[in-house]
Amino acid sequence: MKRINIITLLLAGIFSGSMLHAQETLTLQEAVKFALENKAEAKKSKLDLANAQYKIDEVRAGALPQINGSASLTYNPMIQKNVITMTDQATGTVNTIVAEFGQPWNSQAVVQVNQQLFNQSLFTGLKAAQTTREFYQINDQLTDEQLIEKVANAYYEVFQSDLQLNTLETNLNNTTKTRDILKGLVDAGLMKKIDLDRTEVAINNMLAQKQQLINAQQLRENALKFAIGMDIRQDIELPKETFDVDLNVAAEQYNVDARTEVKVLEKQIELLELNKKAKVSEFYPSLAFTGNLGYVGFGPQFPIFNDKTNTSKFSALGLNLTIPIFNGGATRAKVNQANVDILKAKVDLEDTKLGLNLASENAKSQIRNSLLTVDNNRRNVDLARQVLDDTNNNYRNGLATLTELLDAENALSDAQNNLNTSLLNYKVAEIQLIKANGNLKTLVNE
């Protein structure tokens, strides 16, 4: 039996290598919740959302004072000499003096501050940073919805395998019972051995088919475990009531504008428009306040921690005004490129809406067709089961051949498999319709 392992404990000593498993049934809701907490896509999306706040902090830092400190120490082994010419005003004599300007040791320590007073690019960047966080919030929701859809589809494929395997096991048990009855009749000389051999062949074929279904089921289970981020070595068991059919689901209305895919594109267009404003802001002048406070030490000896060193302090305050005048049209070209990006994004938005409308209508059509197919297949299963009961009764009374009995069993198996397939198609279409209504999150909270 397939089980889900909740707790795995590695034992020591003589039980080394063995594992204990706390097990429970894995419902679709539990599978989706597990995926949202453990799958890589969901984790990365949450990290992107957290990183958006760091980007906002980075942009906001540009509006705060920028304070920097610097220090330097210089030793001049050879000081350059300069010539000074002096004229005696009384005698008119010209005297030339050769002197050294500077000291062997020089040190300096400065603290500088810069504060933006007006910078249109910075203001636009702050708005864009906030919008970027909103974009990642919507994108995180879209990632969750895409993950929910993927998990639901993988979940129902596993369930279909379970139904097919259960159907085959039921038919195998019935055929085995028939074989046992025939064996008793053959041993009593009341039945030909060829009928028993044909039944054995049918059983062997079913056993081979069962093994194929088990292999396919294991592959689908592994695909589901990977989809939700579960350890492949863990076992899973699905509940028996998963394939419920809601006859009213096709009547639900959808609103494409409320879809997360549309919201993501709309927020992306908003970001592109802010990007355009950032390019336009390059036409604006900028004004910044600057200031510094410093210390200079110089002398013939090491100037730090030396009371014989000459020292001096200095400070300056100022305003820096930058006015763009002409850059060859580079800024205008950037603005035009940003405008083209906006137009392309709007085209993508309209095309996405068309695609979502198409997918929604197709989902509704598929739901209606699936409901009809499920109803027909259920009635067909009931009919095939009745035919099998009648044929089995006739066969025991000598009114039907073994071939007719085996054909009736195969017909019931085919009818049941067709019903299972139609149920899967219905569930897949139901997921698409729930997605069209923007309600995929309800699969987590239902």
UniProtKB/TrEMBL annotation:
It is found in: Cell outer membrane. Residues 255-282 form a coiled coil. It holds the Pfam family OEP. Keywords: Cell outer membrane, Coiled coil, Membrane, Signal, Transmembrane, Transmembrane beta strand, Transport. Residues 1-22 form the signal peptide. InterPro entries: OMP_efflux, TolC-like. Gene3D superfamilies: Outer membrane efflux proteins (OEP) (1.20.1600.10). Belongs to the outer membrane factor (OMF) (TC 1.B.17) family. This is TolC family protein. It comes from Sphingobacterium hotanense.
